[in-house]
Amino acid sequence: xxxxxxxxxxxxxxxxxxxxxxxxxxxxxxxxxxxxxxxxxxxxxxxxxxxxxxxxxxxxxxxxxxxxxxxxxxxxxxxxxxxxxxxxxxxxxxxxxxxxxxxxxxxxxxxxxxxxxxxxxxxxxxxxxxxxxxxxxxxxxxxxxxxxxxxxxxxxxxxxxxxxxxxxxxxxxxxxxxxxxxxxxxxxxxxxxxxxxxxxxxxxxxxxxxxxxxxxxxxxxxxxxxxxxxxxxxxxxxxxxxxxxxxxxxxxxxxxxxxxxxxxxxxxxxxxxxxxxxxxxxxxxxxxxxxxxxxxxxxxxxxxxxxxxxxxxxxxxxxxxxxxxxxxxxxxxxxxxxxxxxxxxxxxxxxxxxxxxxxxxxxxxxxxxxxxxxxxxxxxxxxxxxxxxxxxxxxxxxxxxxxxxxxxxxxxxxxxxxxxxxxxxxxxxxxxxxxxxxxxxxxxxxxxxxxxxxxx
Amino acid sequence: xxxxxxxxxxxxxxxxxxxxxxxxxxxxxxxxxxxxxxxxxxxxxxxxxxxxxxxxxxxxxxxxxxxxxxxxxxxxxxxxxxxxxxxxxxxxxxxxxxxxxxxxxxxxxxxxxxxxxxxxxxxxxxxxxxxxxxxxxxxxxxxxxxxxxxxxxxxxxxxxxxxxxxxxxxxxxxxxxxxxxxxxxxxxxxxxxxxxxxxxxxxxxxxxxxxxxxxxxxxxxxxxxxxxxxxxxxxxxxxxxxxxxxxxxxxxxxxxxxxxxxxxxxxxxxxxxxxxxxxxxxxxxxxxxxxxxxxxxxxxxxxxxxxxxxxxxxxxxxxxxxxxxxxxxxxxxxxxxxxxxxxxxxxxxxxxxxxxxxxxxxxxxxxxxxxxxxxxxxxxxxxxxxxxxxxxxxxxxxxxxxxxxxxxxxxxxxxxxxxxxxxxxxxxxxxxxxxxxxxxxxxxxxxxxxxxxxxx
Lengths: 456, 456
Hints:
2 copies of one chain form a homodimer. By secondary structure, chain A is α+β, with helices and mostly antiparallel strands. Chain A is about 45% helix and about 20% strand. Chain A has 18 helices and 16 strands.
């Protein structure tokens, strides 16, 4: 029997974990810097919480958990013999694994509404599960890193989130473009070209403009039943060029007949001006074709792309006005951002942007020459650990070559050798594995040397 | 519709998360200090990996995940109409949620054996799920924090783990007793009293001695079919008293006729002497009645109890010799320790041992007086964040009382007030929420004051 794991899931070994921890701890620190507090929700939610929130397709992609015990008891025998899977599901499963962090967050806000201080700024870094067909870069278990502010419709929140995104990627060393749009601008466009009911068709089509080009978008719009006149009216809006300010100003002129569109342009301008006043390292790009799950967002729409790697969106978010309505708490406005940890991981791998030293990697290994030497080594190791040095002792008095091979394979930068002569002097021979240099030092000197080498 | 979560699961709000993070990060740092590397495994494992590893009862407590799609397709209609839940499970579920971290770790070691450097020192901090009846202190989703060394039978590993346990609880400020035993001592006792086949019965009974007392243990042994002669022979062993060294020496004498028992005493002595040579803050206690999942452990057995709170074991572990045999990799010896995060959380709550400041809590809130003031505040806030201060601005120009109420409710220690006069001077009025003291300072001065107050 060769053991394996379910398809679409992954084991993370020590090297991958160090890299993932680096990403998560960077994001976590910046979330804290911006005043977000962490929450966690259970992996399992009631299916009544999850079903119907992600569309028909999403319902199918939920992992359902079989009820415990005699799950068939009390089930209509006719239903059983009918062998219709989808009819039986709700009878034998009450729980499912969370599909994203947004619906559990909405459920959390409503359930704990009386304990929460509004505006509520929360972040959440947890895995989610989807029964998607696994493929390159798409997993059945993956992490989401979300920050949201609910209970405030101030655009200051958007400005803060964009600054936060900028800080995260600056710390990670990834050059990014932050694309901005506003759902009200999209509504305004649909209104303006005389097709307000076709908003979804229009946005689904123009969202692809980067990939398939203007001509194909026009073809698709025809296929979706848009008249030539509307398509002709749409073209100049999509073709707006110039600096962000110029495009914003032209968009304002083009949309001035639409009240909603005008408000969208005003919001965009306020956000962009606010961000500019504070300064941004990333490039900011107004993109009227940006839609991202339109049915969900009601205002600002944000998407982040890496400039140096072709990988699609690595972060996204926006404003929604009715997150908690489905749980009986209407009218709560919020804005949020979600970092795609797996794609960020791929970008950092591609660009080789990981710091050389991991904050948790072992710094020194003591070689083991036998009982007495090991005892002396363990006393020195204790002293070094008390000074914060991360270390280990080879547990067996194995052959020197084997022991050194371990330090080498694990990239442990220093090896301590404590033989008879070192024991007598209360010292150790410290070997720098990168340079091969060896020196006889006291434990305190070894601590200083290791700390110094980390600082470099 | 009032939203809720499945019974036995929990939401963790900001305050609970700060406390949990404090526990996890303390344990994680000490794991790293001792040279353990982190791994993570998927929440879902194949049921073939999990079933049969936790006994018949354990199999029932596994959460099973319904196969995606048309899960009833191809199932024998007779099986369906039979309505026997347990026969159907294996046909409609291929995956389950992990029940502990040990079996997934064993699976990981076998699956990745060619990539691992032995001895392999790993730690893992992840949730596990059990369909247990929820009750006080027992949840259906809870975290385990495990560290194991596999591929070495050196007792140095035991000594290191005991030192590690001591360090974790010293950092948490919890006074503990570390109880030690050895499975070979238990085998020796069974041998000595002439009942080697009754090892399980004997250990299950004597494991309860602390709770029910000697007389009731004897009664139970009688009930389990042990002859009076054996019970009489057992009594002096359980009644051994004196210091750890004295008890060890008497145990050695009593067990000298048993080869296994003598080896067990020798191992215990080596571990205890090794730990004493290094120094231990915790009390170390030899406890021959300690058994802890006997069928699993083959050598050292470790259990930790809090001295100041009656709550049962808060950490446990031991040596096992055949962790991976069930996955086709026999003969791999290992020793591990598992911290019970939920019980440690309860102990810290009971003793009120949390540090006053959370390392991620918001330090300052800027009051919002309107557009111009907010813009000036955001510039100052940016400067402060660049210096590592965790802060926020109230996003709306709400009433002063409401804004101050937020800082108060969230225990934010400083509030910054930037009105017209502060704007003109490029300063802020910094209010210390604990003392009520206010002073007009520059952003740099505010940074210094906040950092100073954190250091106190």
